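REQUEST FORM: STRUCTURE PREDICTION
Request ID: SP-0412
Submitted by: Lab K.M.
Chain count: 1
Length (residues): 107
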Amino acid sequence: KMKSTTDVMLRTNDLEAAKAYYHGVLGFANIPVSDRIIGFDAGGLAIYFERGDANGSVLEFEVDDVTEAKMKLLAHGCTLVEENPAIPRCYLSDRFGLIFNLTKRVL
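STATUS: Completed
RESULT:
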């Protein structure tokens, strides 16, 4: 069973412009992360920007077993967009175009 988190990740090569807009214009509070990721508290969700080429909005789903969920979703028409166990990151796209990250559920 999957459950969404309140996190949305996007990529941009201009973190300062994202900060100027989301913090300066919209007034969202900064969420301290790192020098390559900035975050904003938008109330019902947290919006994060990672330095890099834009890839669309990425939602996050928690699962008990990332490998098992990934295999099940791939067997049901999802495609692997990006994977890096060191981060950890497992971006999938479903057949309707939704991109999401699978993450291990923390109890």
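NOTES: The chain has two helices and eight strands.
Reviewed by: T.R.
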